[in-house]
């Protein structure tokens, strides 16, 4: 249980960081329309993750799907820049395993990401 919590906390910290007052704010590494050169490594890892998770879901290999998502989260955590669309695609991929806490019929607070939410389609495999 703690491992799952730590993993989801790492996913959260890609997009948010705690400031000196102890409040959460959007992480400066999360950038909209980031230059391709800056996000290429993360984007390649994301596309590999989309392909692997799709195959693993179809093959009912859920543990290996989660392991691949952990690898992608590590790539995002270590990157200097993460594009908002890449992060949103990752959250859509994560959704079947860890649905958002706000439920199916309501929107999350300050949801600015297009195509996100519990009913969003899985991203296409671009690998």
Descriptive report:
By secondary structure, the chain is mainly alpha-helical. The protein is 51% helix and 8% strand. The protein has helices spanning 2-15, 36-58, 62-78, 84-94; strands spanning 16-18, 24-26, 30-31, 82-83. The strands form two sheets. A two-stranded antiparallel ribbon has the order 1-2. A hairpin with a 5-residue loop joins strand 1 and strand 2. Helix 2 packs antiparallel against helix 3 (62-78) and helix 2 packs parallel to helix 4. The N and C termini lie far apart (32 Å).
Protein traits:
127 residues; mainly alpha; two-stranded antiparallel sheet; two-stranded parallel ribbon; 4 helices; 8% strand
Q: What kind of oligomer do you see? A: single chain
Estimate the global geometry from the Cα principal axes.
Answer: globular
Describe the biggest sheet?
Answer: 2 strands, antiparallel
Order of helices and strands: HEEEHHEH
**Class by SSE composition:** mainly alpha
Q: Tell me, rounded to a whole number, the average pLDDT.
A: 82
The amount of helix comes to 40-55%
Order of strands, main sheet, comes to: 1-2
Provide the gyration radius in Å.
14 Å
Termini separation (Å)?
A: 32 Å
Strand content: 5-15%
SS field, number of helical segments: 4
